[in-house]
Amino acid sequence: MSLLVQKFGGTSVGTVERIEAIAEKIVASRNRGDDVVAVVSAMSGETNRLIALANGIQKTPSSREMDVLVSTGEQVTIALLCMALHKRDCDAKSYVGSQVQILTDNVHSKARIQAIDSHRMENDISKGKVVVVAGFQGVDEQGNITTLGRGGSDTTAVALAVALKADECQIYTDVDGVYTTDPRVVKNAQRLDHVTFEEMLEMASQGSKVLQIRAVEFAGKYKVPLRVLSSFKEGPGTLITFEENDDMEKPIVSGIAFNRDEAKLTVRGIPDIPGSAARILGAVGRANIEVDVIVQNVAQDKTASLTFTVHRNEMKKAESVLNKVALELGAISVEADADIAKLALVGVGMRSHAGVAATMFDTLGKENINIQMISTSEIKITVVIAEGFLDSAVRSLHSVFELDNDVKVPK
Question: Which of 103, 156, 219, 326: disulfide with 331, CB 3.0–4.6 Å?
Fold first, then answer.
């Protein structure tokens, strides 16, 4: 008998019929002898509907009240799923984040989990019940409802798997695993049987929407076996492993991740003195804005320019912060550009193969695609390009690195 934490996203529970189908999956797991804790998101489109309601009243609602509002979507789903399980003579009990006592910090809309009280869940599991938990939400020390950010149900599932010492955390979604890239962009994209936590972390950080990056970080830190599966069809999915595969046919590049929701900000004419970059990025950090790719250049006139990327939704906020800092530093200007996209090659095989960057840049050059920014790590090469060239860049690189094929042999 295994203890499984199974997470079902918004499209998986998007209708009453889909909720009924999920109930069948859970019952099938129970019939195999497994205990199940189900974590669910709001029904597809529900969170956006709630946000639209709020924006219809106030353009910038209180973040506390927004958390109170959007957390109700998951409450609907947990109740309906328990009803579907009861209909199948499967004992089940639902919990919102505050009832399970998923304790978080007090950063509304981006809260981080600090502790979980698992006693209620363990008691229910010992009695043979399926525990159904609302994802995406928790409670701070003052009893305020908090939410974990978009995709936060993945993090909830992994955190519960850690707290309960589950045998596996299974993320059910609308795709049947992790692919070499988005199949909507490249029709010949291949499903990966396995991928390392390092690779998955890089893919998630560079724009892969299959898993939330914080969930991958959490799973890797606590060594939680993680599997991505489809809610709509049977299959083995993709297992995210702790060890690299020693297969001689290990590819140089495992996947191509990308993100269209990017913006680029540049501060020009910064006095080239120690501490300037710290003052700029410190101000951005204090505004709770996450920065990704960073490039600094120093001109012949001894002034510097600092360029970095942020999520497109936070561009205006970041620009406002930068205008104030630039004035204090005596910088010349602040520029913002939302017409960009980020693309990354990811693969542990890069560690032992030279020339990956040269091949990547040569391919983009032949497609007449200009590279605006470059960032690298041991297993990743990231570039920032104009958004209009993204699809052709992904297709070209997918072909050049032979990711279209089932068997990929490094040259």
Answer: 326
More confident residue, 227 or 300: 227
Spell out the SS3 assignment of the chain.
CCEEEEEECCCCCCCHHHHHHHHHHHHHHHHCCCEEEEEECCCCCHHHHHHHHHHHHCCCCCHHHHHHHHCHHHHHHHHHHHHHHHHCCCCEEEECHHHHCEEECCCCCCCCEEEECCHHHHHHHHCCCEEEEECCEEECCCCCEEECCCCHHHHHHHHHHHHHCCCEEEEEECCCCCECCCCCCCCCCCECCEEEHHHHHHHHHCCCCCCCHHHHHHHHHHCCCEEEEECCCCCCCEEEECCCCCCCCCCCCCEEEEEEEEEEEEEEEEECCCCHHHHHHHHHHHCCCCCCCEEEEECCCCEEEEEEEEEHHHHHHHHHHHHHHHHHHCCCEEEEEEEEEEEEEECHHHHHCCCHHHHHHHHHHHCCCCCCEEEEECCEEEEEEEHHHHHHHHHHHHHHCCCCCCCCCCC
My answer on whether 144 and 20 are in the same domain is yes
CATH number at residue 116: 3.40.1160.10
Domain boundary among 142, 174, 206: 174
Instruction: Give the CA radius of gyration of the chain.
Output: 23
Number of domains forming the structure of the chain: 2
Is 203 a member of any domain? no
Q: In this structure, is residue 191 part of a structural domain?
A: no
Tens digits of per-residue pLDDT, 220-229? Answer: 888 888 999 9
Whether 17 maps to a domain, the answer reads yes
Q: 74-91 pLDDT, tens per residue?
A: 999 999 999 999 999 999
> Domain containing 61: what range?
3-174
